[in-house]
Design a protein that fits this description.
Elements (H helix, E strand, L loop, with lengths): L17 H28 L11 H22 L3 H22 L8 H22 L4 H15 L18
Helix pairs in contact: 1-3, 1-4, 1-5, 2-3, 2-4, 3-4, 4-5
Length: about 170
């Protein structure tokens, strides 16, 4: 059962709760740990992320979730429903951690091809999530991006230099 701290509409009064703050902190630590997991997986296997090419059913699932989230967040921003985007993005990275990464545990220690697919998928979803989440949490997203940038020699100097991600209607 998930309880979201900021589910009130914009402009309404909110009650301050330490429990709500603790929940958001735990969720941000999940986000941080996803990037740590990716870096560790890449270093351990000496593999760098590449473009997505071969997708199994679990990769198609999380990429579909990513596309749906990009569409939802874009629509929320276009309609000035700014109070909704945090939960939409949070749902995505919690799904990445709690579902996708749990489903691919065996695959992540499988063949080189399987490891490459897992790394490509996590990197792709994480990078697009960083692009969206940088609007809400600029400091943690920039810290994560700088770690990825150093590790993978990414070109843009900041996560804020990227274009907004596009969603795939398929």
């Amino acid at each position: 059962l998930r309880y979201y701290a900021f589910t009130v509409s914009a402009g309404e009064d909110m009650s301050y709760s330490l429990g709500e703050i603790a929940l958001r902190y735990r969720n941000l630590m999940v986000f941080w740990n996803i990037h740590n997991y990716l870096l560790d997986l890449c270093r351990t296997n000496n593999i760098r992320p590449k473009k997505l090419n071969h997708l199994d059913i679990v990769e198609k699932y999380i990429i579909s979730k990513l596309s749906s989230t990009i569409k939802q967040v874009t629509e929320s921003l276009d309609n000035y429903n700014l109070d909704k985007i945090t939960n939409q993005i949070e749902d995505l990275f919690l799904e990445l951690s709690r579902t996708y990464i749990q489903l691919i545990r065996d695959k992540a220690s499988g063949t080189e091809k399987e490891k490459q697919v897992v790394i490509n998928c996590i990197f792709h979803v994480l990078l697009d999530t960083l692009k969206m989440f940088s609007l809400v949490c600029p400091f943690i997203t920039e810290a994560i991006y700088q770690n990825l940038r150093r590790e993978f020699n990414l070109e843009p100097l900041s996560i804020h230099h990227y274009q907004w991600p596009k969603y795939n209607a398929k």
